[in-house]
Amino acid sequence: MRADIVSELEALRTERSRIDARISELESLLLAEEVQAKDGVAEVRPSKNGGGSYVLQYTKCGKPTCRCAKGGKLHGPYWYLYIKKGGKTTCKYIGKNLPSEA
Q1: The whole model's pTM is what?
Q2: Which among 23, 40, 50, 56 is least buried, having the fewest CB atoms inside 10 angstroms?
Q3: Calpha distance 101→68 (Å, rounded)
Q4: If you average pLDDT over residues 97-102, what whole number do you get?
């Protein structure tokens, strides 16, 4: 009896890991679609660890006298990591180059 319970428990844990990985993958795909629709996005790559998407995008700096604020050329492109947690999307600046583990 105990061996059956342990065996079933292990099978369920394996299944949960597979389901969690698939959920993370699908969330990353949805996030990538959401981000792709933004202005200035040049490229979107899902992260290899399933924790969001890397986005190459052009940005405005926020300075009112800059060319980007006057409808001119935007800055970049720069890489950002977009992650969705608890229904909120967060964005982390990565830089001009994508890390090798990305």
Answers
A1: 0.64
A2: 23
A3: 32
A4: 75
